[in-house]
Amino acid sequence: MAMSSIRWWNMGVVVVWLSLLGLPMAGHWLSSPPPAQAENRRLAPSVSWPASLAEAKGLPAAVQAWLRDHFGFRHELLVAHNRLNHVVFGSFTSRELMAGKDGYLFLGSKGLAHHNTLRTLCGADEVPVAVIHGQLRQLLAVSRAAAPVAQLLLVPDKSRLKPEKLPQWLQDECAAFAPPVQALLAGIRQDPDMDRRVFYPFDVMRLADQARPVYHPWNLHWDHQGAMPVADWLAQTQWSLPRRVDVPLVEAVQSFDLPQFAPGLSHSHATQVPLYKDENMLVCHNSPECFPELAGEAAALFQVARFRSAWQLPPEQRRPRLVILGDSFGEAIAEPLAPYFAEVWYLSMNNLSRLSPEQRRRLRHVTVDLFQPDVLLHVYSEQSIFMGYKGYFRDITALLSP
Predict the structure, then answer these.
(1) Which residues of the chain have pLDDT under 50?
(2) Less CB within 10 Å around the terminal CB: N or C of the chain?
(3) What is the domain count for the chain?
């Protein structure tokens, strides 16, 4: 009788153990998939049967990457981990996030390299300013062949507008250095081919921030409210454009972009957002349907937007047209610029590497040759400018080259 009880006990242990081993698989099939851009990156894609020897050689690594990103309950465990760290310790598991003073949050690193970009922006780390100047010069040179007006908007970083909100240790480290953007702008102002083509609207943003926040404390990007003063300044004082349509603004509560970096954490803020009416503006965000002529390319780029205020007019009368190529900061300013243009395209360059050579040729052909923009505006954050010299701008320049 005792032996029988032990046998049943052992069988029970085996069943429980096998059930626990099967839980991740069950969780994978039963739980909801994580957001497409979870953790501020694209999760590893599903694995398909290899169609070539090269794909077969890469199959083990592809399977490992997929399992690492999609094992059962991974997203739920990540959410619980983020909440526990933030509630108990007031910290963030993502090294891309840096807590500042008075509840301010900053983007502490860009991408997966986890390099402290805030030290770079304040001048504590050396950057090749001359190299960056040359890359931007080349970018604008090829851009001038793509549109009558080709310019670059360098968006001041949140740490530049709110240096007093940085953690004290970082303020102390940065005190002895000059931000590299000063040297970059000094060189640009002495370059006749770039002087009137590069904007750094620090004064515009600082003045606007006195009335309404350009950067909300918990937000890492500017929103419509923050970008609107710069959009009006560009359209009215730099391009002398009248507003074609009036888009009313309403007060709304929006969530910050925190969940994109730390799933499970969220904060919201009151801000002003546009209230669109179908009769005066057709709006489309982040969908291949925004660009039926570029559906595959738009799906790969992921962050895209299209605004049409002259859709009821014949195509030849839909002028002026604006194309914005940029990082994630380009999306927010596309909206307040839209009332000044008949049509606005925003295409994020952050995922340009996902496009095949043929897709890149098609993207340029449709965007430049067929759409024929009157203005081509590059919009990049200060972090992208000083961290993208290793290949980011080289790829965009190659995209625009005839």
Answers:
(1) 1, 112
(2) N
(3) 2
Residue 196 covered by a domain:
yes
Q: What is the pLDDT of residues 355-384, one digit of tens each?
A: 999 999 999 999 999 999 999 999 999 999
Q: Which tokens belong to 350?
A: 């952050």
- The pLDDT of residue 52: 77
Q: Give me the pLDDT at residue 297, please.
A: 94
Q: Is residue 42 part of a domain?
A: no
pTM of the model: 0.83
Whether residues 249 and 218 share a domain: the answer is: yes
